[in-house]
Amino acid sequence: MTVQFHDQHLSAEALDQIFREARSYNGWLDKEVSDEQLHSIYELMKMGPTSANMQPARVVWVKSDEAKAKLVACVSEGNKAKVEAAPVTAIIGYDIDFHEELPWLFPHTDAKSWFEGDEEGRKEGAFRNSALQGAYLMIAARALGLDCGPMSGFDAAAVEKAFFADDPRHRVNFICSIGYGDKTSIFGRSPRPDFDKFNEIA
Amino acid sequence: MTVQFHDQHLSAEALDQIFREARSYNGWLDKEVSDEQLHSIYELMKMGPTSANMQPARVVWVKSDEAKAKLVACVSEGNKAKVEAAPVTAIIGYDIDFHEELPWLFPHTDAKSWFEGDEEGRKEGAFRNSALQGAYLMIAARALGLDCGPMSGFDAAAVEKAFFADDPRHRVNFICSIGYGDKTSIFGRSPRPDFDKFNEIA
């Protein structure tokens, strides 16, 4: 039975939590994030739409001291302290051979055949759709009372070598720390554009 | 004053609305979406994080019969009827020269200089971050009681010629219909992976 919510708005507080008051944190309170919380984030994010349900994201949740040290070595100077202090940093990767999974992920038709022999198309589709999934990950984490700190300052080849050595068809899209944000680590919010600046109703 | 929501979960109903019960619709009820609703979606989506607040998304909300006919001519056979029936279809584009706007979008430092002379880096950043913004758009629409129908089956060069002719540095990422979904237009939900299939805690 399909449940619909036509014209129903989330509460003002919920909209504040996932969009209006949420911030990207640079520093973190000394408070753990459990494996159960990471599972709960994924249970929500996997429900978000991807093209032909391709679900190309492959996520490494970096939590142990050993894995953190490996990741810190791959990120830019300005991000090292952030990753070190964060309880968890998610590496949002993607599989450029995601189409091998389509027979069970999209069972109603032979979607695998759409992508065979089109590696460029797969790379584009996997990059786009794993970025969507990274956004779902952040909104899901916020919806569960956690904060995020997304970053794109890292050496992609080094991250892939350190974390995807056994999966040579996996690439990294971006990384995102997760935890309980430290209010003192952020400045005023950057300005946001008015609708008319970057939108047109045609 | 920074507002935080540590360990506070959105209600089960809100999580259903934005993730668990939301579906990608193929057909639409005959019910209009107002310009005010489109503004409300943007007011939320623009709060989502982008790298250095680059906000690369440039959105054309296709609503008039004339604009719809132009877009229908650019989409794949299987998507023509969907776009025709939808009250609105958003073209989520991006500006590969987004860095020109960084002096006011990211005023605390000279972020524009990071991207000058690096067109490949800008293309990658704009594609990644406009995909994030497309995901925020969909979650925001759902959070306001609307449904989405994202699509990547279209001729990108044709869309760019038809809608971005005056902005030769704009590209299209994906398109997404918005309205009140018709329950009879969807089938059972495609399977979702278990955590262990595509995730690792390191």
TrEMBL record, chains A, B:
GO terms for molecular function: 3-hydroxypropionate dehydrogenase (NADP+) activity. Its EC number is 1.-.-.-. The keyword NAD applies. Keywords: Flavoprotein, FMN, NAD, NADP, Oxidoreductase. This is Putative NADH dehydrogenase/NAD(P)H nitroreductase P7228_11270. It comes from the Bacteria. Residues 24-180 form the Nitroreductase domain. Belongs to the nitroreductase family. HadB/RutE subfamily.
